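Hi support team,

I submitted a single chain yesterday and got back a structure, but I'm not sure I'm reading the token output correctly. Could someone confirm the output below corresponds to the sequence I sent? I've pasted both exactly as they appear in my results page.

Thanks,
R.
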Amino acid sequence: MKFIETLKNVWKITELKDRIILTLGLLLVYRFGAQVVLPGIDANQLGGLSQGANDGILGILNMFTGGAFANASVFALGIMPYISASIVVQLMGIAIPYLQKLQKEGASGQKKITQITRWLTIVICLFQAPGYVASLPTLSGAGSLSTLLVPGFSTTTFMVSSVIILITGCIFAMWLGEKITDKGIGNGISLLIMVGIIATLPASFLQNAASRLDGGGNGGLMMILIELVVWFLIILASVMLVMAVRKVAVQYARRTASGGYEKNAFGSRQFLPLKLNASGVMPIIFAQAIMFVPSLIGKSFGSSSEAGQWMQAEFGNPFGLWYNVVFALLIIIFTYFYTAITVPTNKMADDLKRSGGFIPGIRPGTETSEYLDKIMSQITLPGSIFLALIAIFPAIIVQLMNVQGGWALFFGGTSLLIMVGVAIDTMQQINSYLLNKHYDGLMKTGKNRKAVA
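Hi R., thanks for writing in. Yes, this is the structure output for that exact sequence:
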């Protein structure tokens, strides 16, 4: 088979083979750490924590950490503090001139931005780690922290050591991600998140399948097959969203022997690809972060307030109506916002002008920038609506097919888009190695080439 032959070709490239082995090894270390419980905790007392962490919004957090959140693991915070720090630094880059200057300095500026992100990650961990440790008794239903600990283990010692270990675990996970990016294959941080998501997939599927096959009139094997077909279709839709581009025709002038440019019909014609979803999963992550706020506000009102009870009930359930209506609107708004700050149409127009390129019928410079900005506005609307639909599809599938919550989260939202996006990005990197060595690529976009001895 051609696929088997391609895998053999991957193994023939020494550098690519070493990178893949290193990546798999570091991912294995991360998954091993997710199973190591914080010192001092009685693992037999974590049943309530596992149950509580799989319900509502906490189920999303637990998915991103690959179950480490529910295990009270040394990696319980996962890589999310680093993601939060990256988002904050990116947003601050809009308003702070110093960060704007660093963004324009190329590799040296990016190195400084990365260092700032690391320090901000530690600051975020200093708040999240104590909060996680303090919430363990409530989440597990143990009532008090001493109930969770093994006999003779001091509560104070546990608090201090756990905070230090959780912060260290997050920093170590960040280091693993950066090492994968530098020495391995693919984006390390994204791969850590994807592996954590995939780790919870088998258990979620088996739990849902068991409920279908228990003989209680839940549809049986036929419903399981229908669910798998729907899941496959939504994956295809996600791939289309990630890969879809609007091609803008670009004409390049022919360079003359004297070094100048000659604008005539013989210039090469190419395309400028503008992505339908240029913002990726960032709008969903932004919106997801804000959706924690209404539930917290509801809790601040107290259980005696009707408004507080309503907000906790509606916005504490990721499959509820009002949660998903607000969630979808926020995604559409953030898609426009994030696309506006990450797609530099002015820079694209300037680069085209400097390289001797122009869009037929459009003057180079300001007019080209306005034209590209207009196209981005036009394609962002359907892209944002499509992204919002995929994001809220888990709630739809729960209502239509009575799928269990843990398995439903894989039918859309951040988890599915991250898996699809990271898989495509990793395959493209492997594809480039294969094509550079004159082998057939993994993806159909690559040119077929005969192996060179």
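A quick pointer for reading it: The beta strands are 245-252, 254-255, 261-262, 269-275, 357-358. Let us know if anything else looks off.

Best,
Support desk
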